[in-house]
Design a protein that fits this description.
alpha+beta; 6-stranded mixed beta sheet; 2 domains
């Protein structure tokens, strides 16, 4: 689970800026706190702010770090998207740091980049501010002349087999713009288990959903996981979408493409037969379709919906549902897994295309459920969610630009509001910041544009 995330000199973040899931001293909604070994963490958090304040930048920075570690390829943003309002920022360090818990072990990973060169990278078992940190590796370099050095933990150095790897890594395979942690995935020696465990957290324990991103494999999740299918049906019924049931329709591939696109069908059939046991996914603007061989016959699988209005007799395709219904369906894997697994989910602009009351009920359900296991973190403009029956004060954060144009983050808990205060009203009145500053619109002379036409 996520403890904290730190960013500096990237996008709209100039100085070291921290977002964290650490609870304050509040008695309300105690079930929102996950009590761990040595640290307590929150399960829910939301981020408010005006357009351009930096909410999405925080999630984008997190996404870039994750992708860099998993793929091993330096994102261009880490070179080009330093803080724009400082002329010297391009030559200054970009820093990304993250503290998290994986299988009861707390880790801290830090990355310093300058002009596309990793000048420092470290992985530690965190002492959580209470004990000593244990360094697993430290990698240093310089922007100018190459000065790459890597130091691994005592356990690695003293293991005859593992001790060979640091030198091989440094001299043979490690590029100056690739992270050391990326190269941990194929290490088999047991002394590297903590390294692999940390890497696995980035690969399997965090998910990010951006405004226009869509989950892959939704068809297969519904078909193979009955608990998830039942969950999806229950949610769609409860939210009055009109959906009575959800099916996975399996039809011959020729029927899916029809007469007008036989060539595409033949191409996919040939691909399936060449790769026995494999599947092929095609995603258009509205839906994902899975092509598989069933008893050696090429078939297409897609999601279909039955509506209560027709007693379930007529099936609707994913593309025939409203944008809001489709978006709600696409959130369901995140909500289901956040309820049942120790995963951390980031959702940017959670309210996009979905009615405010539906989003409020969905978040309220997650908030009030005492058995949820994961973390749900999202950005939003939806003020209807601002209710102390849903969030603790330490679970509401604001993003606001300072006079330098840099994003600052702070929590509602800094204002020490009483639990009876209407925080929605206070937010809309500008009490906490994080709202757009509007000029006097009545003074705008729109008539001149009408006359110009």
């Amino acid at each position: 689970m996520l403890i904290r995330f730190i960013v500096k000199n990237l996008f709209s973040f100039k100085e070291l800026t921290e977002f964290n899931m650490l609870p304050g001293r509040f008695n309300r909604l105690q079930h929102h706190i996950v009590k761990g070994d040595g640290i307590d963490l929150l399960k829910l958090n939301t981020l408010y702010g005006a357009n351009g304040a930096g909410k999405s930048n925080l999630i984008n920075a997190f996404s870039i770090l994750r992708d860099f570690i998993i793929d091993g390829e330096m994102p261009i943003d880490l070179i080009t998207e330093t803080f724009k309002f400082d002329k010297e920022s391009a030559s200054r360090d970009v820093y990304l740091g993250i503290e998290f818990i994986k299988e009861k072990v707390p880790y801290y990973y830090g990355l310093t980049i300058n002009q596309g060169i990793i000048i420092e990278e470290e992985l530690q078992i965190s002492g959580l501010g209470k004990g000593d940190d244990k360094q697993l590796f430290l990698r240093t370099d310089k922007v100018g002349e190459k000065n790459l050095e890597i130091t691994f933990s005592k356990e690695v150095q003293e293991d005859k087999e593992a001790a060979i790897f640091p030198s091989f890594l440094k001299n043979e395979i490690l590029d100056r713009n690739k992270p050391v942690l990326f190269h941990m995935k194929n290490r088999q020696n047991k002394v590297f288990e903590p390294f692999k465990n940390a890497l696995e957290w980035f690969e399997k324990n965090i998910e990010l959903i951006m405004p226009y991103s869509r989950p892959g494999g939704l068809v297969l999740q519904l078909e193979r996981n009955k608990a998830f299918l039942d969950f999806a049906i229950e949610i769609m019924k409860s939210f009055n979408t009109g959906i009575h049931d959800i099916h996975i329709d399996t039809i011959p591939i020729e029927d899916y493409f029809g007469e007008d696109n036989k060539q595409e069908a033949e191409r996919i059939i040939a691909d399936l037969k060449a790769k026995t046991g494999k599947m092929k996914f095609i995603r258009n603007h509205f839906e994902e379709v899975v092509f598989v061989l069933v008893d050696n016959k090429p078939m297409a699988k897609r999601i279909m919906f039955s509506h209560g209005e027709d007693n379930g007799q007529v099936k609707f395709q994913f593309s025939e549902e409203s944008d809001g219904t489709r978006r709600l369906m696409e959130y369901l894997p995140a909500v289901f897994n956040a309820v049942s697994k120790c995963k951390t989910y980031f959702i940017d602009e959670i309210e996009r295309s979905i009615h405010p009351l539906l989003i409020k009920e969905l978040i309220k359900k997650f908030s009030h459920d005492k058995d949820t296991k994961g973390q749900l973190i999202f950005s939003t403009h939806e003020s209807n969610l601002l209710h102390q029956d849903i969030f603790r004060p330490d679970e509401i954060w604001f993003a606001e630009k300072n006079k330098e144009g840099a994003t600052e983050l702070y929590a509602l808990s800094e204002f020490k509001e009483h639990h009876t205060i209407d925080i929605r009203k206070g937010y809309l009145n500008g009490r906490y910041g994080g709202i757009p500053f509007l000029g006097n619109l009545k003074d705008l002379d729109w008539e001149k544009y009408a006359k110009a036409d």
